[in-house]
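As a next step, the fold was encoded as tokens, giving this record:
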Amino acid sequence: MKNNHGFTLIELMIVVAIIGILAAIAIPSYQGYILKTQVNRAVSELAVYKTAFEERLASGANVSNSDIGYNPSNLTTGNTATDITLLDADGSGHLEVTMGDKAHPFLADVILRFERTAAGVWGCMVDSSAASNWKASYMPPGCS
């Protein structure tokens, strides 16, 4: 009577090959998920300041980082000394940050901007021209 203990070498090689195939599929998908999540998070954090921008504009007050309560994200290169806001005389303007710092290296130098028309309509813009590895799937909903 033969006593079987454990797996054969071929069975172990098949298991390792299956794990390798799954990893080859899963890792790029996970990377894409991380990048998309970071862009969405930065856009969401920037969107918070639209309300404060509108309130300051309605009251005729200044619109600067300190006025809107800007707190830089660790995903962007922003700091409290450099204004993320711009207000034109006609009421148009924008909020703008640049990805960097703790964001994925593929997102470095991507510019995220909320633009306001003189009529008060906000639009989301993403300038990914500086990111050579940018994919359309990273684009947040509602942005162009």
In short: Residues 85 and 95 are 5 Å apart (CA to CA). The chain has a mean pLDDT of 92. The two ends are 71 Å apart (CA to CA).
